[in-house]
Amino acid sequence: MHEKLLIDKILITLEVGDKTSLFILLAKDGNIDRKGDGNLTSDLPLHRGVSNQGHFEALMMTINEEIFSYSGVMRKTNRMGADCTLTMIFQGPKEVDYSFRVIYGAESEGPPRELVEILINAVKLTEGWYQEQLSAPVEKEKSWKFWK
């Protein structure tokens, strides 16, 4: 199995109810997008950028290739609490696509341990970059006055 070598993008989202509490997109070329921290009480913005710190490679090193044999949708029964959806999509060129979606209740059994570990690792690996983006000064839009 060499699926990991074919992957060049990873998308991870966590939705609770109708709100996206976490969005992480990592690409092999260094592109990185992140919004939120998984907490519903915080409304953190989306930041996009390019990083040469190897976030994608670091996350891929934590992934056991055997999970790609089990991609698909899993709906947990006996869901309690708010509906939650964890989505992970691993893509590469030539239609390489391994997608996982787990629908569960916030107060009931969650996603499989392997997927939870990927989620936690993605958050940990991108946290420093995201905090840096959050603390960077926001450039104010220049108001151009063409009539002067």
| Whole-number mean pLDDT | 90
Tally of individual helices = 3
Biggest beta sheet attributes: 7 strands, mixed
Rg result:
18 Å
Number of strands: 7
The dominant shape is: flat
Strand order of the largest sheet: 4-3-2-1-6-7-5
Our estimate of the beta-strand percent is 35-45%
Task: Work out the helicity level.
Answer: 10-25%
Distance between the termini: 65 Å
Which sequence of SSEs, written as H and E, runs from N to C? HEEEEHEEEH
Low-confidence stretches: none
Q: What structural class should be given to the helix and strand makeup?
A: alpha+beta
Overview in brief:
The chain has 3 helices and 7 strands.
Overview of the structural elements:
With 148 residues, this protein is an alpha+beta fold. Helix content is 23%, strand content 35%. The protein is built from three helices and seven strands. It has helices at 3-6, 55-61, 113-135; strands spanning 9-16, 19-27, 31-36, 46-50, 72-75, 83-92, 96-105. It has a seven-stranded mixed beta sheet, covered by helices on one side. β6 and β7 (96-105) form a beta hairpin. The radius of gyration is 18 Å and the shape is flat. The protein starts with a helix and ends in a 13-residue tail after the last helix. The mean pLDDT is 90.
Annotate the secondary structure layout.
Elements: H1 3-6, E1 9-16, E2 19-27, E3 31-36, E4 46-50, H2 55-61, E5 72-75, E6 83-92, E7 96-105, H3 113-135
Parallel strand pairs: 5-7
Antiparallel strand pairs: 1-2, 1-6, 2-3, 3-4, 6-7
